[in-house]
Design brief:
With about 425 residues, this protein is of the alpha/beta class. Helix content is about 30%, strand content about 10%. Helix 1 packs parallel to helix 4 and helix 8 packs parallel to helix 15. The N terminus is likely disordered.
Amino acid sequence: MTFHPRERRIAGGIDRRAFLRQSAFTAAAVAAGPSLLAACAGDDAAGGGGQAVPLSRPDNPVTLPTFDDIPMIADGLEPESGPLKIFNYAEYIAPQTLRGFRRQYGVDVDVTTFTSMDEAIARLSGGQAPFDLFFPTTDVIAKAALGRLLQPLNASYLGNSGNVWTQLQDPFYDVGAQYTRPYSLFTTGIGYRVDRVTQTPDEYDNPYDILWDPAYSGDLYLLEDDREVLGMAMLRAGEVDVNTEDAALVDAALADIQALDDAVNPRIGVEAYTILPEGRATIHQAWSGDVVNAQYYLPEGESIENVGFWYPAEGGGMIGSDQMSVLVGAANPVLAHLFIDYLLDVDNAHTNFEWLGYQPPQTSIEPASVVADGLVPAHLDTTVIRPEDFDNGYQLLQLSLAGERLWDNAWSTFSAGA
């Protein structure tokens, strides 16, 4: 059953991003078989004749390889009879979006969900997931492509691609947009109770210092995400390479979050959208979309004016996007392309955003219009993402296997002592 954000309560406190980067990709690869293991070797030597996965960065754009035996579909094909089978996080497409597509094309749409990207990749590579359309995170695109899980997209079916921001039409992690189109955006900032803080983040010399403030001991949450927490500590210290594999920098970030633990005894979680409006925390490291959704979880008599969100006004915080891809072996590849194009349509993107809370990278979405349309409360316009934020922000991207282990070990050390 699918719920509107105003209604949903996720059993056990598992948010759709709870496991986004929480565990090493290695665990999924072990379950996945030799072809994906070879592809997942990162910049280590790939065994079995496999190709090394390039580590894409803004200053190191990557053109992903294609394979002769995995061609894109031909132009001008008629849509299949369906059902279109989608593989996605839970509650990550608006019900009205699905209904609209069903009506327009006269087909059924089935959505199967996963709780983590590791789980999704393991199921796909193990042949357990015969789906058409997949919503991967940016950091696994190269692995999935070299693991032969994705098929190249045929742009002739994707006429709405020009509606998205220019820099995401030809992204550095998939030059030429061969395998992906962007779906949604998010920034990572600080959610807080306006009515309970003595200073807003902006009033500190370093806004991140509010997370280390002992005044909020026992009343503060960090995200349940190793990359987000350690990356945040790096940004606080002025280190902007949040994909570093320098052990000294990772150890320094670990020391800083251990000091945070000593100062404020933080809790770990991913439910800022309920915890902040319900007053169960004063401070919560949070994703922008979850703070937008806080307005739908207000207790009776509570005001959304009491919930604030900080992200650097000049940019330079953590930022990311999720993607849409067609899977190898899709029984309905034309429908999958048409669904991507449907989500890239201006009106459909707005409808989906209204329910989802996570912003699509549509050129038609301006901060003023988002507020004017009632999608985002005026004082939470700090959650609205602009194209220049991607130029100035820092994305959490794929690491080598050695880098994964380095970050995971640091998080395990922190978790053991927290």
